[in-house]
Amino acid sequence: MEREAAEALLSAAQAQLAARRLSAAEELYSRFIARCGGPAGGTAPPGAGRDLATALNNRGQIKYFRVEFAAAVEDYTAAIECQPGFEVPYYNRGLVLYRLGCFDEAMKDFRKVLELNPQFEDAALSLKQAILDKEEKQKRGY
User: How far is residue 119's CA from residue 87's CA, in Å, rounded to a whole number?
Assistant: First the structure.
C-alpha cells in the first residue's frame, strides 16, 4: 500500500509538471521526496532509488525554471547521490554551473554524463561550448 501511495504521488507530480503547473508539481515532488527518505526525511519504499532520483531531478528543474540556481543544484546533487548512475541530473547541474560561469565544474559534469551515456548528444554539445567559452574567458583575462 505504501508503495502504491508513493507511486501515485510521483505520477501526479509528473502530470502537474507536464501541464506546467509548477507550484503543484513542486509540492507533490516534495511530498514524494519526504516519503521516500530524501533530504526532508522519511523511509524509502523498496526500489524507490530511481524514482527518488527522478523526483529530486524534476524538482530541481522546477527551481531552475524559477532561476533558483542554488536550490536547483542542491536537488540535482541529491539526485546524483541517490542514483550515481543516472546521467540526467549531472547534465542539468552542468547546465546551471555553465550558466553561472563555473566552466570547469560544468565540464566535469558533462564529461560524467558522456561516461555514463556516450550517446547523450546535448551533453557533448554542451561540453564543447563550455570548453570554447572557458577559452574565450581566458583570452579576455577574466
Answer: 11
What is d(CA 39, CA 85) in angstroms, rounded to the nearest whole number? 19
C-alpha cell at 103: 566552466
Task: Find where cell 550515481 sits.
Answer: 84
Core vs surface per residue 93-102: b (16+ CB within 10 A) or e: bbbbbbeeeb
What's the mean per-residue pLDDT of the chain? 92
CB 34 within 8 A of CB 43: no
**CB-based contact 112:83 (threshold 8 Å):** no
Q: Which three cell numbers stand for residue 38?
A: 530524501
The count of residues in the chain is: 142
As given in the structure block, the three cell numbers for residue 90 are 549531472
The backbone torsions φ and ψ at residue 41, rounded to the nearest 5 degrees and listed phi first, read 105, -175
CA nearest to 32, candidates 105, 127, 101, 14:
14
pTM of the model: 0.89
- Segment 74-126, tens digit of pLDDT: 999 999 999 999 999 999 999 999 999 999 999 999 999 999 999 999 999 99
**Residue 32 in contact with residue 55, Cβ under 8 Å?**
yes
